[in-house]
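Example record

One chain of 418 residues, shown exactly as stored in the release files.
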Amino acid sequence: MMRWSTCGISMIAAAAMSLGLSAVHAETKGPVTDELGVIEIPKGAPIVIGGYWVISGPDTALGLDSQRGAEVAFEDLGNKIAGHDIQFIVEDDGCNAEGGQTAATKLAAMPNVVAVLGPACSSAATTGAPILWKAGLSSIGTATTAVTLTAPDRKPDYQGFLRTVYSDADQGKNDAKYFFNELGCKTLATIHDGSPYASQLAGAAAATFRELGGEVVAEEAVTPTDVDMRPVLTGIGTKKPCVLYFPTFVAATAQILRQIADVPDLKDTIPMGGSAVMAPGMIEAAGDAVKGFRITNVDISEDTMGQKYPEFVQKYTEKFGEGPINSFHAQAYDAAMMLAKAIEAVAKTEGDTTYIGKKALNEALYQTKNMEGISGTINCDDHGQCGGFNFAVYEFTDSDPSTYKVGENPKRIYPAAK
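Predicted structure tokens for this chain:
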């Protein structure tokens, strides 16, 4: 299996980009007629699957973990789908809207890409998914949790997008219930960074917290590049919230966590983060301030995951020399398997050539029902929501980066181990 990165874009793809995205139109090739076009794969040619995730910078673990999960899935498939070798082309989206647009444009312009896995960041999906669908390419998000991406009122531009990960509508509700019921907190303050992920998750948690009878005393925003968080924290401190919830990314989270100690009015406030910062880089960025820091997340302990999850972790560790480094490797594995099953279902062979209809593939993905994945049951609805959610809270137990290990540092503290 070959993997191309941003640095290895082919001359053909670069030329295609200069001409604009491929046009979507009905066509007939061999035995297949499809409204969005047909991918033709000659004998001996690979089946090309794209991917885009954040694979550089402080949030690398978030995307790299997904990419690795997909690669383990491809190995379990013998690196073949529909009788063809898999060629996996991965682009770095930087975990932002601009990067998602660039990565999606590159993938959409490449000849014979069948479909795309990723991204990890909702910001990248917000811009990237419509570009891919304009080229007739379906994409499956692996850690993109923003509520609007699979909402019933989403725009037709997102018909091509599905996800095997949960919606933050579910996490937000569970987060609020944990704050209110388990921590016994009646006041909440939130901080987001303007990203679809952080803003929508913080908003969902705040809405449920109010419904439970709690008071949201502050809802603030920072930018991902802010260094001095003291003015925002000082303002929040005057309200003395029981919980300060900031589901931001690594850089902003580390700055907030380091500077909370400088605000005396927050000395009794419980800081809580989100799933994006389950990463080795969180310890490196926050230093000693990370010890005791709690984050809400999807439960990835072996007693809640699919029966094949321990076997997956073993393969992951053997292949990459370390255990999983974030939360969404299982969802990426399931996305790859879901895509492979859909391709196998619609691919038709005539002579020595395989033909795949783009619309037929999209429809087959939406028809995924009760697929037993290693992240749980994959069951797609009409809006592309395919993954479920099991709530957990993890706590960083040590500030030494070498001690990072999912399940130990950070350690699951809720629910209690069975």
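Notes: Residues 1-21 have pLDDT under 50 and may be disordered.
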